[in-house]
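Practice problem: predict the structure.
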Amino acid sequence: MAWTYLFLAGLFEIGWAIGLKYTDGFTRPVPTVLTAASMLVSVILLGLALKTLPVGTGYAVWTGIGTVGTAILGIYLLGEPATAMRLACIGLIVAGILGLKLASG
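Answer:
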C-alpha cells in the first residue's frame, strides 16, 4: 500500500507544481486553493508512504515522479521545449525511479 500512497503523492505533487503556474503569483483564488490543497494531500500521502518505506527512497521517488510529470506537462500544456537532451534527461530520471523501486522491493 505504501507504493500506492507514494505514487498518488507524486501525482498530487505534479498537480501543485503545475498549479503554481496558474495561481499567477497566488493572485487567482481558485487555482491558489486547488494548488494548496494538492500540496497538502501530496505531503500527507508521502507521510503515509514513509511509515514503511525508507525515507531516502520514498523522497527520491516522490520528487522524481513530480519532476518527470511536471516536465512532461510543461511540454504539453505550457509549450516548453521538447529537445532530445531534455527528453533523455527525463528518461534518466525515470530509470532512477525504477531502479530505486527495484532496489527497495
